[in-house]
What does this fold into?
Amino acid sequence: MLPAFALIRPRSLSEALSAISDDDVPYSGGTELLLAMRAGLQRPRALVDLKAVPELRRIALLDGGAEGTELRIGATTTHDELARDAVVRDSFPMLARVAAGVGNARVRAQGTVGGNLCFAEPRSDLVPALAALDASVVLIGPGGSRRVPVAEFILGMYWTVREPDELMVEVRVPVRPVRAHYVNLRITERPSVGVAIRVDADGRCRLVIGSVGEQPLVLDYDGIHEVDPDAVSAAVEPVPDLTGAEDYKRHLVAVMIRRAMAELETGKKQ
Ligand SMILES: Cc1cc2nc3c(=O)[nH]c(=O)nc-3n(C[C@H](O)[C@H](O)[C@H](O)COP(=O)(O)OP(=O)(O)OC[C@H]3O[C@@H](n4cnc5c(N)ncnc54)[C@H](O)[C@@H]3O)c2cc1C
It folds into this structure.
């Protein structure tokens, strides 16, 4: 049974902002929040339903000024919307594939990009994929807005840099000529390990390991030849769970890095 709660339905970003507080929490698809409430882990006074806030639901390529052209993904964009968007499929095929592979049909139809990042459940496909693409999130609160790289947004399990009075407005992904690829291993509905890799036009490379530790491991290299799967596997801090012990997860990390690198070279690339 869900505990009793009030439902607030703001129609604009400013209404939503003034409605949220420690006790009155943002609510997007509810795929995580309602489970947490049902389990008694969260007991908000009110849910502030973000679905009718137009500023939060858009996907567009926009000129970011000094930041160059960016893909802007509104926080309440669902996984399905991301996977099906023509611009995303064309310019960021890795991202479209990642969104299309999330969980199950219900989670993809209801779950949102903002909810995925803000909940910070460690077994996320989006976090490593977006961190590899050097994406940032835009947060807005009473003091104004700030931009945080996805690579720095997650502080630990279910813990981010977002303050309770801040809303995630959008994710911004720089448009650059990169090659990128993501592979995961799924034993349950959520990934047990996810590896995202991006190679820039000048050869520099970013590797992100997700779902294994409490937060993603982000590593930058001058070239892909510097990536040592065994060294990365030794550096991760796996959280053992029902899908595998620490040693097994370390082994998986090395295997999945090799797979990601091989597939990037053989054509499954962005
Ligand atoms: C069965 C199952 C399988 C899954 N499999 C995968 C998988 O394979 N890969 C993967 O990456 N993920 C997976 N997930 C996670 C899924 O992606 C998330 O549940 C979903 O994206 C969360 O979005 P939501 O809109 O439902 O969030 P909600 O449940 O509405 O909210 C989650 C949290 O984020 C906060 N929040 C929501 N939106 C905002 C905002 N705009 N600003 C500030 N705070 C906000 C809420 O207050 C709450 O704390 C799975 C989940 C389930 C239940």
User: Anything to note?
Assistant: The pocket of flavin-adenine dinucleotide is lined by residues 25-33, 50, 75, 102-103, 107, 110-112, 114-116, 118-119, 121, 124-126, 167-168, 189-191 (CB under 6 Å).
